[in-house]
């Protein structure tokens, strides 16, 4: 099975062509300062060029549906839906926190993925629940005598806060392995059911700034 993965939930725009038997065929990840909308399709087009494949060869589209950037999540989901409809292919939706958690899955300690939501707020997954809160509130609920593995840009950006509160019990995944990869998204998608293209929605977790102000 050949999958195309698209993830623009964070500042990293990552796309991949992934084979269920051979693994990664092609993958590109870029740090995007502004809008992902002008970057995604050129990356996708280039992946097919360098892999000598055609987009019609794809069996399924895998997409990250947040949490993260409200605009970024909408871009990836919109493109993935459009491709799935045009190609008449299945669409698999995966939570961004699940992708980050998988990035650190080789660790024996409890993993807590963190996405920076700014001003010391984070999107995180703890004990199977995805939430949006201030990092200090999450830390206050943790067992200070237990080791935890933190992964994601929230872990990198707030490393000092993690260390101040948990000391050596805060294990921070290195920067080079703390950003999402579309190949991981694709691999997770292999064991998940197809989403309903017409009803699948972003998993924002929190309300947008406009909704909060309203």
TrEMBL record:
Gene Ontology CC, one term: cytosol
Entry-linked Pfam families: TsaD (PF00814)
Top-rank lineage group of the source organism: Bacteria
InterPro entries per record: ATPase_NBD, Gcp-like_dom, T6A_TsaB
Domain Gcp-like: 32-212
GO BP of this protein: tRNA threonylcarbamoyladenosine modification
Protein's recorded name: Universal bacterial protein YeaZ
Organism name: Fusobacterium periodonticum D10
């Amino acid at each position: 099975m050949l999958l195309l993965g698209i993830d623009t939930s964070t500042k990293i725009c990552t796309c991949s062509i992934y084979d269920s038997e051979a693994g990664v065929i092609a993958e590109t990840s870029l740090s995007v300062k502004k809008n992902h909308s002008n970057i995604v399709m050129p990356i996708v087009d280039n992946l097919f060029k360098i892999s000598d494949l055609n987009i019609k060869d794809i069996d399924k589209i895998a997409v990250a549906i947040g949490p993260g950037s409200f605009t970024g999540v909408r871009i990836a989901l919109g493109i993935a839906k459009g491709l799935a409809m045009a190609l008449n292919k299945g669409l698999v939706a995966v939570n961004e926190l699940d992708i980050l958690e998988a990035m650190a899955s080789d660790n024996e300690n409890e993993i807590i993925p963190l996405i920076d939501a700014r001003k010391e707020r984070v999107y995180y997954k703890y004990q199977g629940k995805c939430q949006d809160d201030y990092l200090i509130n999450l830390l206050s609920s943790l067992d200070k005598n237990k080791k935890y593995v933190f992964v994601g840009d929230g872990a990198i950006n707030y490393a000092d806060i993690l260390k101040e509160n948990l000391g050596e019990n805060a294990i921070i995944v290195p920067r080079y392995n703390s950003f999402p990869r579309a190949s991981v998204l694709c691999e997770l998608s292999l064991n998940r059911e197809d989403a309903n293209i017409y009803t699948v929605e972003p998993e924002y977790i929190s309300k947008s700034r406009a909704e909060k102000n309203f």
